Amino acid sequence: MWGLILSGAIVIAIGLILMIEYGYTFTSNPSAFYFTVGSTDIAGMFLLVLGSALILIGGLFKR
């Protein structure tokens, strides 16, 4: 149960790092800002959803 919760937290942290890195690429050169959904963006969102699911499943087993 705690393994799922902790692994979900680690996966969420990795997803947040990817999303922050993706946003930083826009702020490093604001004149070239053009929002496109890239592979880093999709991977970050997927990891956030996966981590949230792991935490929820771990919470169900904790009951």
Order of H and E elements: HH
Regions with pLDDT < 50 over 5+ consecutive residues? none
Classification by helices and strands: mainly alpha
For the report, how would you describe the main beta sheet? Answer: none
- Which value, in Å, is the CA radius of gyration? 15 Å
Q: Number of helical segments?
A: 2
Rough outline: elongated
Give the total of beta strands. 0
Helix residue percentage: over 70%
Average pLDDT works out at 86
Strand content: under 5%
Distance between the termini: 9 Å
Overview of the molecule:
By secondary structure, the protein is mainly alpha-helical. The protein is built from two helices and no strands. The chain is elongated, with a radius of gyration of 15 Å. The N and C termini lie close together (9 Å). The mean pLDDT is 86.
Task: Describe the protein's topology.
Blueprint: H1 2-28, H2 39-62
Helix pairs in contact: 1-2
Short structural summary:
This protein is an all-alpha fold and 63 residues long. It has helices at residues 2-28, 39-62.
